[in-house]
Amino acid sequence: MRKISVPALLIAIAAALVACSGHTIPQAAIPNIGGPWEFLAGSSNDTTHVTGIEVALKAGQSLVNGVEQANGMVSATGATQIAILTINVADGTVAFGGSCLTGVGTYSLAGSISSLAGPFNFTYTENGNIFNVTATLSGDGRSATGTYSSASGSNCSESGTITGTAVPKLSGTYVGQLTLPDGTNDTVTATLSEDSNSVLSLNLVATTPDQTSFTMTGPATGNAFLVQGTFQGQPVAYAGYYQLTTPAMVPSVYFVNATNAAEAYAGTLMPPPPTN
Questions:
Q1: CA angle 267-203-177, nearest 5°?
Q2: Which CATH class is domain 35-166?
Q3: Count helices and strands in the chain by DSSP H and E runs
Q4: Other CB atoms closer than 10 Å to residue 270's CB: what's the count?
Q5: Which residues of the chain are under the pLDDT cut of 70?
Q6: Those residues with Cβ within 8 angstroms of residue 220's Cβ, 6 or more apart along the chain or in another chain
Q7: Interval 73-98: pLDDT, tens
Q8: CA neighbours closer than 13 Å in the CB half-sphere of residue 216
Q9: What angle do CA 71, 76, 81 make, to 5 degrees?
Q10: What 3-state DSSP class applies to 99?
Q11: CA 163, CA 136: separation in Å to the nearest integer?
């Protein structure tokens, strides 16, 4: 007589019980991974830089039995949802706009997921050049790892590894030297606060040698932001990037003056020293 193993017998009994009950085991709901994410793409051709794809990721929704549920589609389009930049891994300097400068078009990201610990495949577009990403979502839906490569016909031929992390909203107080819009180098305190709509409020207070303050607002995309306001009656803009790891191994906020196309480096601010 053929013997039946205990695990096989248990599986057969479970299947019979489900069949007799007339019910099927419901599929797990698709997770909602919308929110701020940072993807870091490391090219196999250039080990001195990484590309940061900074997104306020939007999760698609579908109506199921009268309830909006995540449908597995994710996207980010336009300057309010995605920014691409190039990070020098040696000194932490940042170039806003990415390294693939040839081509025409805006930035975008589109892809899909089906489950936790399942495939997370998407494309991102940099200046009209398309890159394909094949990754795996973590079991908690907070990170992803995989590979990327440029699509056929791209003006930039690249491939390598990519990691993604769901990041906290930007917040906190940072201090240091910052070049103000009038060109003076001041000691400043910057306070960041990002709301539920991924809009960042940045308050700058300068104390030495000037004594002035002004507030700027704008979209936050992952660990990057672009804020606008007025200084001495003139419109100004700053682009910034929150660096989790720097050569000094201290989290910091990197600023450039984005008021004009030159985008001059303005300074790097760090958390204030602890008080006793």
A1: 25
A2: mainly beta
A3: 1, 18
A4: 15
A5: 1-28, 103, 245-249, 276
A6: 36, 56, 169, 170, 194, 198, 199, 200
A7: 999 999 999 999 999 988 889 999 88
A8: 27
A9: 135
A10: coil
A11: 10
Q: Which of 171, 257, 170 is nearest to 221 (CA)?
A: 170
pLDDT reported for residue 16: 47
> Over the Cα atoms of the chain, what is R_g?
23
Residues 6+ apart with CB under 8 A from 180: 186, 188, 206, 210, 212, 231
- Kindly state the tokens that stand for 1: 């007589």
Q: Do 23 and 60 touch, CB atoms closer than 8 A?
A: no
Rounded Cα–Cα distance for residues 233 and 87 (Å): 33
For residue 104 the two structure tokens come to 């025409």
Distance CA 42, CA 48 (A): 9
Residue 237, both tokens: 């803009």
| Residue 68, beta-bridge partner list | 63
Q: How far apart are CA 45 and CA 68, in angstroms?
A: 43
**Bridge partners of residue 58, in order along the sequence:** 75
Contact 185, 179 (CB under 8 A): yes
Task: Please answer whether residues 122 and 110 qualify as being in contact, where contact means their C-beta atoms are separated by less than 8 angstroms.
Answer: yes
Residues 6+ apart with CB under 8 A from 129: 100, 102, 103, 105, 150, 151, 154, 155, 156
Identify the pLDDT of residue 14. Answer: 45
Threshold 0.70, pTM exceeds: yes
pLDDT at position 64: 83
